[in-house]
Amino acid sequence: MSTDHTTTESTTAADETVTESDSETDDATTETTAANGTANRDTELSAPSVSTQRSQQIQLIGLLGLGIVAAGFWLVAEWIGLLAVVIIGLTWYVLSSAYAVAIGHAMFLPVASRSLILEPAVLVAELGLIILLLAPAITTGAPERFIGAFLVSLIGLSGLAAGAYWWSDRLWIGAAVLIGVLGLAGYGLYRYEQVRLGLVDTETETESESESAAGRIDSESTHTEDPI
Amino acid sequence: MHATRRYWITIGLVAVLTVATVLTARPLVGLGAALIGAVLLAYQYIFIHALARTVEGLTVEIFTGRDSILTDETTTVILRVADHVGSPLALAVEARPPVGARLTGTRDVSLGADETDHEAQTEFEVTWPVTGTFEFDRPQLAVADRYGLFEEQLPIDARSSPTVTVEPHRPQEMHVGSGGERIGAAYGEHEAMAIGSGLEPDVLREYTTGDSAARIDWKTTARMNSAYVREYETDTDRETVILMDTRESMTAGPPGETKLDYARQVGIALADNAHEFNDPLGLYVVTDEGLATRFKPAANRHQYITIKERIRDLEGVTEADPASPGRTQAAARRATNQLTDQSPFARRLRPFLEEQTTRIQQIDHDPLVRTIRSHIRPLQGAIWTAIVTDDTNRAELQEAVSLARRGNDHVMVFLAPSVLFESGGLSDVAGAYDRYLEFEEFRRQLSRMHRVTVFEMGPGDRLETILTSGARLYRDRTRQPQSSTP
């Protein structure tokens, strides 16, 4: 059915898994279409599978970010810090930047304080991780818009979570606010998409549609075919 | 928007980091969760933005080779997609032909996120087994972002989408005429029969006091040496009522060339004609059980289309035709009686069968007469009634025609001579000729009624064979006794 126009070659194990499963799905649906000839709604449409192979630009920006991370970790823990950077780099290369950021923050555990104030060396490492995380923005087609959305989201999420922690002096409340705000924002965007693209399908609307459909039928029968 | 497995795995990372933040009491770890969460929101926002742009900049066109085809014919359909905004999303567009149409081939096209060529098209074949007018549904668009986080499917508007009219197979040799002669004009055309100041010249008469000087025909006046005025036919909205007979006798004839197949074509032509002239059109369909369809005359597009579809879908149903898609009233009653159990299947089915039993207005006998008396005669205004039937029930037809001629109304009758639809071919041409003459006598008898026009309809080749061979045989037969006389 859906012809896979893009290459499924991948550099990461996770990416291979995704693209292989997509390819299998496509093959199966292609066979269904070829064999049908009887019905027209028995296949399911799917978008072409997407190559998640990193472009050269993303790799260069990612390496730049990794370098800044290395500088930060060197300042924090010297040679042990560089060992942590190797692990972060491997995670980024094998998995993805999100995993690398998660591992990077786990590496901060031995040196991080209980305070909300970040040390300058940690700030440098954080800057590198952010660059690593935002490297794919260059292929979104609207990098400024993407970075703007990221900054607004980051300020909103971390600001509200930090504010809740500061106000309550309980870390779990700050964590709960972070998860809650993320969930609300994600759902809000989902609803925004539904409205913007006219995909809203509420129960009330369905009822009114069916009522109006029934009205149409009634009026048709009144004006055209008479009940016998 | 559908979040993929990859999205949920990333959300899982956020959750793990958040829990780790609480367990280790290190706010810095929570900053990692905020970073990943923020980037997910940014991806989501950018996906929505790209999707909205893609929908606005996408042109989908669907073309078919022909808009009007016969049942079981196949048309080639072309689906063309052009992305004018260079969407960063991978997308596929699927054409959605009406349910019931049979497809061969791939009916969707894909555009990859990395492709520079933003146009694609596909061709597939659609076979149409059901008569009617069909429209393609809105095409379906499926998109995915290049990071494998989000997918979406939604219907989109096509710039051009075809409407296909599927008509039943027509008889090959269609003949409509009288006494073996085809009529030249399109049947269904009718005169207003009211004289006034319209556009079509009708008659000349001598000038009388009160006539407008503007209506004097000066050429005729000069020729005749006295003033003459020309009358014009007025334009009237004459209501057209088609009365279709679909009783068992109308199913006579070989498959695809039954009386009903010819009647259907005449009915569609009459409806087309009324549509062309915007005459209010009504339809009454008589079955063995009584009156099955009743459309009071109306002049709107929906009425014309619905009536034409109804006529196309007309099926003559017989008791001895188990393969027929329809069901007689008696068969429906039998089926309802058999559903005595309380199974979910029986409970679900029973109302439909009971409804069918009550839908048809029962008329014990002479349904044509009863229909005209009860439904057509009470109609207001000038009515032009077209009765499409056969010559099986002649007495009933005669009475029906008499009743339909109310006031100044005109009646047009289209008769299928049973002799042209007899099984066993034309082995007895002389006998068939005799029966045709008998039919012709009946037709003329009806035609002699004031404001009644009667046409025969049927297979032209059979009629020609009967008329030529039969007449020759008849002549030979009449000559033989003369020659044997000393």
Q: Into which percent range does the helicity of residues of chain B fall?
A: 25-40%
Provide the number of structural domains of chain A. Answer: 3
Largest interface: A-B, 88 and 95 residues
| Mean pLDDT across residues of chain A | 72
Secondary structural class of chain B: alpha+beta
The CATH C-level name of the largest domain in chain B is Alpha Beta
User: What are the secondary-structure elements of chain A, in order, as H or E?
Assistant: HHHHHHH
The CATH architecture term of the largest domain in chain B is 3-Layer(aba) Sandwich
Unreliable spans of chain B are: 191-201, 318-328
Share in β-strands of chain B: 25-35%
Domain DUF58 (chain B): 205-333
Protein name (chain B): DUF58 domain-containing protein
Keywords (chain B): Membrane, Transmembrane, Transmembrane helix
InterPro entries (chain B): DUF58 (IPR002881)
Task: Describe, in plain words, how this protein is organized in 3D.
The complex is a heterodimer of chains A (228) and B (486). Chain A is mostly helical and 228 residues long. Chain A is built from seven helices and no strands. Chain A has three domains: 9-39; 54-139; 141-202, no CATH class. The longest helix of chain A is centred in the first third of the chain and has 39 residues, at 56-94. Chain A is flat and about 55 Å long. Chain A starts with 12 loop residues before the first helix and ends in a 5-residue tail after the last helix. The model of chain A is unreliable at 1-39 and 205-224 (pLDDT under 50). Chain B has five domains: 2-55; 59-167, Sandwich (Immunoglobulin-like), CATH 2.60.40.10; 195-233, no CATH class; 237-322 and 363-479, 3-Layer(aba) Sandwich (Rossmann fold); 327-358, no CATH class. In chain B, the strands form five sheets. A nine-stranded mixed β-sheet of chain B has the order 14-13-24-23-22-18-19-20-21, with helices on both faces. A five-stranded antiparallel β-sheet of chain B has the order 1-11-10-5-7. Chain B has a four-stranded antiparallel β-sheet with strand order 2-4-8-6. Chain B is α+β, with helices and mostly antiparallel strands. Mean pLDDT of chain B is 80; it is low at 191-201 and 318-328. Chain B is 37% helix and 29% strand. Chain B is built from eleven helices and 24 strands. In chain B, strand 13 and strand 14 (181-182) form a beta hairpin. At the A-B interface, helix 1, helix 3, helix 4, helix 5 and helix 6 of A face helix 1, helix 2, strand 5, strand 6 and strand 7 of B.
